[in-house]
Amino acid sequence: MNDNINILWKRVNPIELTKRQNKIIELVKKYQPITSEHIAEKLNMTRAALRPDLTILTMAVFLEASPKVWYLYSGKPLKNMISDFIKNLKVENIKSTPVVVSEETTIYDAVVTLFLEDVGTIYVHNSGLLTGVVSRKDFLKVALGKTDIHKVPVGIIMTRMPNIAYVRDEDNAYDAAAKIIQHEVDSVPVVEPASTESGKKGYKITGKVSKTNITKLFYDLCNDKLGGL
């Protein structure tokens, strides 16, 4: 996970607050609305020395400033703060590298790729544009039939566009998780608009968000291991 995510998490993580910052919150709760001057007086500090703490608490939504005169306690519970964090966390920050093959790749070669890359889903392209997706279930179904997997291309068994759920870099982590659940898939591709040399328009695959990505995100959040993604 990159520095932007760490910064965002620190804005909503109350465990990072100092004793003085917690004291400021208690003072605002008790005397709100209260000015920064009055807070400084009660803490026996200067307003200049207090300014960084008030900035942090305002950015973290513990306090509300109106405008730069009065301070109020937001009263936002921790669960809402975590929810805000997830909904502000962009797909581009959690996506991983997708495994992509062309439509002409044989089913056999695609299965080998699936095992070698240790993934549950393979994305399919034609001239660089996303055209389909194949899951482990799809490969299992065809393996149980009479299809010659050494000759038949993967494009024959894939789920085709536009019947593929996808997300973009600017979508948030919650949107990605919701689509994975709603469509009952292992992952969704991350795409951006693109076109071929012939002018055909579609989407280029730039990444994926899988159940593993989402699970690891929550694991790292709960264990304060944000640097692990």
Describe the 3D structure.
The chain is α+β, with helices and mostly antiparallel strands and 229 residues long. It has two domains: 3-85, Orthogonal Bundle (Arc Repressor Mutant, subunit A); 91-223, CBS-domain. It has nine helices and nine strands. It has helices spanning 3-12, 19-31, 36-42, 47-59, 78-88, 107-117, 136-143, 173-182, 211-222, and strands at 34-35, 63-66, 70-73, 100-102, 121-126, 129-135, 159-160, 187-195, 201-210. The strands form three sheets. It has a four-stranded mixed beta sheet with strand order 4-5-6-7. Helix 3 (36-42) packs across helix 4 (47-59). The chain starts with a helix and ends in a 7-residue tail after the last helix.
Q: How far is it from the N-terminal to the C-terminal residue, by CA?
A: 4 Å
Helix content: 40-55%
Radius of gyration: 25 Å
Count of structural domains: 2
Quickly name the level 1 CATH class of the largest domain: Alpha Beta
How many DSSP E strands? Answer: 9
Low-confidence stretches: none
Please state how the strands of the largest beta sheet are arranged side by side.
4-5-6-7
- Portion of residues in beta strands equals 15-25%
Mean pLDDT: 86
Secondary-structure blueprint:
Elements: H1 3-12, H2 19-31, E1 34-35, H3 36-42, H4 47-59, E2 63-66, E3 70-73, H5 78-88, E4 100-102, H6 107-117, E5 121-126, E6 129-135, H7 136-143, E7 159-160, H8 173-182, E8 187-195, E9 201-210, H9 211-222
Parallel strand pairs: 4-5
Antiparallel strand pairs: 1-3, 2-3, 5-6, 6-7, 8-9
Helix pairs in contact: 3-4
